[in-house]
Amino acid sequence: MQILENFPLKNLNTLGVEAFSRYFALVESAEEVRAAITSLPHAGVFVLGGGSNIVFTRDFDGLILKSSLKGIRISGSDEDHALVESYSGEEWQDLVEFCISQDLFGIENLTSIPGSVGAAPIQNIGAYGVEIKDLLQSVEAVDLTTGETKIFSKSDCRFGYRNSIFKQELKGRYFVTRIILKLSKRPAFKIGYGELQQKIADLKEPLSARLVASVINGIRAAKLPDPREIGNCGSFFKNCVVTQDIYETLKAENPALPGYPEKEGWVKIPSAWLIEACGWKGYRSGDAAVYPKHALILVNYGNATGADIYRLSEEIIAAIHQRFGLLLEREAQIV
Fold first, then answer.
1. Pairing of strands 60-67, 54-55
2. Domain limits, the chain
3. DSSP letters of 275-326?
């Protein structure tokens, strides 16, 4: 392991903004994590995953650690399920492809989500009615204050909507080294989302995990910009979850307002609809913009800074609050 100084981060964040880290280390084991934090005991530590959900608004005056721990394997199985172990430095999509190739089910809806395996449980990534919490067995992580390794069960992670204990009381404290998923050997597809269901029906092909993943890949490609072409960090804002009473009040004032039932008494409102309703879809200020095809995506057309993107998000949040009385919450992490 080598600790580098004044390390450029532009190629390590999918938004493509310029930033530097005072120190940087690519680590290949838990032992190297411990060695890095011991060698620079007074430097603030930040763990960087795939860089697909982060906005660097400034240089980082500390130590950035990035996982290079590799390996995916089936670590156990019974008649109905298999345990799949993956180290944190693997790309999430590679894990999805491995599971589909092994005829395991449940993860196919999470295809084409950019980022690393290690970041997935922190964010509780989700799409098309599935979240990683539905699949997760355990998370192994190194405590960045003590160097000790800890195993977190699913319940220990305290998962919520795009949330976990690692984004709350344990924020910044742990370096994820590996995760274990529990996947089904029997098909149990979740294709209830309207667009997904319709496209699968139109194909008139036998239902399979590969087919579900392929259709979702196509839907995402049509709506979301490729970060290799246009800098972005995916969905910038979480959807709004409100009480049924608040939703009905807003619905009376805005008859076209969509809403989807959540847990009893709660409704999810698509933030993309709110942003578009306020006229922000396609808005551009310099090289910071709202993507014309999807209002949840903030993009960098080349030379926007992280501060430019952050300011644009602040303006959008203020506009939504003024019109609807709702406070958008960023999904992207601000540094």
1. unpaired
2. 3-67, 72-184, 231-334
3. HHHTT-TT-EETTEEE-TT-TTEEEE-SS--HHHHHHHHHHHHHHHHHHHS-
User: Could you tell me how far CA 164 lies from the centroid of its own chain?
Assistant: 12
What sign has the CA pseudo-torsion 39, 40, 42, 48? negative
CATH C-level class of 231-334 = alpha beta
- The two tokens of residue 50 are 């795939």
Q: Which residues pair with 65 in a beta bridge?
A: 25, 47
CB < 8 Å & 24+ apart, contacts of 307-312: 307/57, 307/58, 309/15, 309/17, 309/55, 309/57, 310/55, 310/57, 310/334, 312/283, 312/285, 312/288
Of the candidates 294, 253, 250, the one whose C-alpha atom is nearest the C-alpha of residue 268 is 250
Answer yes or no: CATH 3.30.43.10 is held by domain 3-67. yes
Fold agreement between 3-67 and 231-334: no
CATH code linked to domain 72-184: 3.30.465.10
CA separation for the pair 309, 55 (Å, rounded): 8
**pLDDT tens for residues 295-330?**
999 999 999 999 999 999 999 999 999 999 999 999
pTM of the predicted protein model:
0.89
Tokens of 166: 């690692």
Q: What value does the mean pLDDT take over residues 163-173?
A: 94
% pLDDT > 90, the chain:
88
Give the DSSP H or E segment for 180: strand 174-184
Catalytically active residues, by annotation: 162, 235, 331
- pLDDT over 80 (residue 88): yes
